[in-house]
Design a protein that fits this description.
Layout (H helix, E strand, L loop, with lengths): L1 H5 L5 H25 L6 E5 L14 H11 L1 H6 E6 L3 H12 L12 E3 L5 H8 L6 E5 L9 H8 L5 E6 L1 H8 L5 H8 L1 H10 L5 H18 L4 E8 L6 E9 L2 H14 L3 E2 L2 E2 L2 E2 L7 H5 L4 H11 L4 E3 H8 L7 H13 L4 E3 L15 E3 L11
Parallel strand pairs: 1-2, 1-4, 2-3, 4-5, 6-10
Antiparallel strand pairs: 5-7, 6-7, 8-9, 11-13, 12-13
Helix pairs in contact: 2-3, 2-12, 6-7, 9-10
């Protein structure tokens, strides 16, 4: 009933979530299609909790946005295999009708498939038994039933596959210490990690409790091969508490970089030009959420310290350093140009020989030794 009510109107945070998923899908598909053409000629979009296709107010939900992108792209329309599922029969039937009403839907080479199954052990076993085409996997359950590390890994283990999933922080935080849902928590975090987490969060403040839970989830995802994890936080209606996170996980740094740019554009605000990766910003102080909340002033000092005495390209500064931090490439280039104009670093070619206000990825920057130059403004 709660899920049905959720789709009665298109809430702003749901629109943000749909925008993040659909924009990443478009960028991911552009990158992956040339490679996929050489290995089977298919890409896939898989959504196990797809909903009815449209909200009661008529707003399109994620499945419709994904299919419309494929229809508008001649190459994608020939390659996309779209699979949707919802255990609620009313939702799956509504989704099929909504898909059938999309203009140009008949131009897709592969007809979108809609299933009506409960997400559990059988689906996981099915995914584990086959080799999937490059797939963007979206898991958006109302609560946490059906969501597990094993489910995510059953798709992520395949080449070219990325996952985005809804992490209902409010319900999971309550579930951590609830023996009635212990099985679900064990499936989500791993049995040993869930056990340790129950003990660790008992007396923590709400802020540190959240940071600890999200950090442990990120560690669990990394341990199964999802090296690049990026959370986007949503606050509740009154802006006082976190309601949920949208978690992205990938084995590829390029996908991580693309999603970082997508999430940055959907952030509620920026601080010194640095995106908050939040809908209604909220700053925490440890783990992965802490790293995603460091101000731009910190970046200047971090670069001077980490790369002291070294000469390397702008890309080689950005690529290893931005993982796990909320800074985007523009932030790095802005800081490097400021350091150059202040005479603290040298660049080749220098600013005088570059287009004004630019610093290309191939520009070589030389940092002073640790003892040289000031470390703060």
């Amino acid at each position: 009933m709660a899920a049905k009510k959720f789709f009665e109107e298109s809430k702003e945070q749901s629109q943000v979530k749909a925008a993040i998923v659909s924009k990443y899908f478009g960028a991911w598909a552009k990158v992956i299609m040339p490679w996929a053409k050489k290995a089977g000629g298919k890409i896939a979009y898989l959504d196990l909790f797809a909903g009815p296709g449209r909200y009661k107010d008529g707003t399109k939900s994620t499945p419709i946005m994904i299919l419309e992108q494929a229809i508008s792209d001649p190459q994608m329309s020939k390659m996309l295999v779209a699979m949707f599922n919802d255990v609620d029969a009313d939702n799956s039937e509504s989704l099929e009708r909504s898909i059938g009403e999309i203009s140009g839907i008949e131009t897709l080479r592969y007809k979108p498939m809609v299933y009506n199954e409960e997400v559990g052990e059988d689906i996981v076993k099915r995914f584990e038994s086959v080799r999937l085409a490059p797939t963007l996997f979206f898991v958006d359950p109302w609560g946490y039933k059906g969501l597990s590390l094993r489910l995510i890994n059953s798709v992520l283990r395949n080449w070219g596959c990325d996952a985005i999933f809804f992490f209902n922080y409010n319900r999971i935080s309550m579930g951590i210490s609830n023996s009635l849902v212990e099985e679900h928590m064990n499936a989500l975090f791993g049995e040993q990690r869930a056990k340790s987490l129950r003990a660790a969060v008992k007396d923590l403040t709400p802020e540190v409790r959240e940071a600890t839970i999200v950090e442990e989830l990120a560690k669990a995802l990394r341990e199964m091969g999802g090296e690049y994890v990026l959370p986007f936080r949503f606050r509740n209606a009154d802006g006082k508490r976190t309601s949920h996170h949208l978690i992205f996980v990938s084995k590829n740094i390029r996908g991580y970089s693309i999603m970082k740019d997508v999430m940055a554009r959907e952030s509620s605000k920026e601080e010194q030009g640095v995106p908050t990766f939040e809908y209604n910003p909220f700053i925490l102080d440890q783990g992965i959420l802490f790293e995603l909340s460091r101000p731009l002033d910190e970046l200047r000092n971090m670069l001077l310290e980490q790369f002291a005495g070294r000469a390397l390209s702008v890309e080689d500064v950005y690529s290893p350093h931005h993982v796990g931090r909320r800074f985007i490439k523009k932030n790095y280039k802005d800081i490097l140009m400021k350091l150059e104009s202040d005479g603290i670093i040298k660049a080749s070619p220098p600013a005088a020989k570059r287009r004004s206000g630019t610093m290309a990825d191939h520009v070589i920057v030389t940092f002073p030794t640790a003892a040289s130059g000031p470390r703060s403004n």
